[in-house]
């Protein structure tokens, strides 16, 4: 039996596991994209706080998690916390670690968009009696979200690609299953090429969706 036939046979045999791993990847990427955006909005809101202490702590959070390599954070939580009798499942570690990391980046994107806003409209809203939360909810947030669409969609793509590192903390996502496929027949090039094509297809879908969203909602800076 040729190498290609053996690879195809192993691929078909392991296809259920590979599809389950792909589903786990999509689940993780989707969940952290949502949770990272929601937490990022909260962090961004705190950067606008009048208290210098709150702003300092919030900016320190952003700097820390942007500066911290994601893999180091995941290893710290998965392999380090058990020394303190804190044991979390691989998915829980991946979800929490990714969320904190993604939220920091999203908050930075939103802050950049906010800095480009015309502040006179915010002053006008305040003069009309809107409180800080109302101004944020109805004026600031909708605009910064629309201005940040390109950056936020790029972050979703990064979330999908970065999810591949979760196999290092024993989360059985797509790339982990491809690793098992490659190890079963030593056809590493074919297995990794398959993984690359699948990731490329998924990223292409996200890009197409992002362009549709941009055409509908994007406001040129």
From TrEMBL:
<keyword id="KW-0813">Transport</keyword>
<keyword id="KW-0472">Membrane</keyword>
<feature type="transmembrane region" description="Helical">
    <location>
        <begin position="88"/>
        <end position="108"/>
    </location>
</feature>
<feature type="domain" description="ABC transmembrane type-1">
    <location>
        <begin position="22"/>
        <end position="210"/>
    </location>
</feature>
<dbReference type="InterPro" id="IPR000515">
    <property type="entry name" value="MetI-like"/>
</dbReference>
<keyword id="KW-0029">Amino-acid transport</keyword>
<dbReference type="Pfam" id="PF00528">
    <property type="entry name" value="BPD_transp_1"/>
</dbReference>
<feature type="transmembrane region" description="Helical">
    <location>
        <begin position="60"/>
        <end position="81"/>
    </location>
</feature>
<dbReference type="InterPro" id="IPR043429">
    <property type="entry name" value="ArtM/GltK/GlnP/TcyL/YhdX-like"/>
</dbReference>
<protein>
    <submittedName>
        <fullName>Amino acid ABC transporter permease</fullName>
    </submittedName>
</protein>
<dbReference type="InterPro" id="IPR035906">
    <property type="entry name" value="MetI-like_sf"/>
</dbReference>
<keyword id="KW-1133">Transmembrane helix</keyword>
<dbReference type="GO" id="GO:0043190">
    <property type="term" value="C:ATP-binding cassette (ABC) transporter complex"/>
</dbReference>
<feature type="transmembrane region" description="Helical">
    <location>
        <begin position="21"/>
        <end position="48"/>
    </location>
</feature>
<dbReference type="InterPro" id="IPR010065">
    <property type="entry name" value="AA_ABC_transptr_permease_3TM"/>
</dbReference>
<feature type="transmembrane region" description="Helical">
    <location>
        <begin position="191"/>
        <end position="210"/>
    </location>
</feature>
<keyword id="KW-0812">Transmembrane</keyword>
<keyword id="KW-1003">Cell membrane</keyword>
<dbReference type="GO" id="GO:0015184">
    <property type="term" value="F:L-cystine transmembrane transporter activity"/>
</dbReference>
<comment type="similarity">
    <text>Belongs to the binding-protein-dependent transport system permease family. HisMQ subfamily.</text>
</comment>
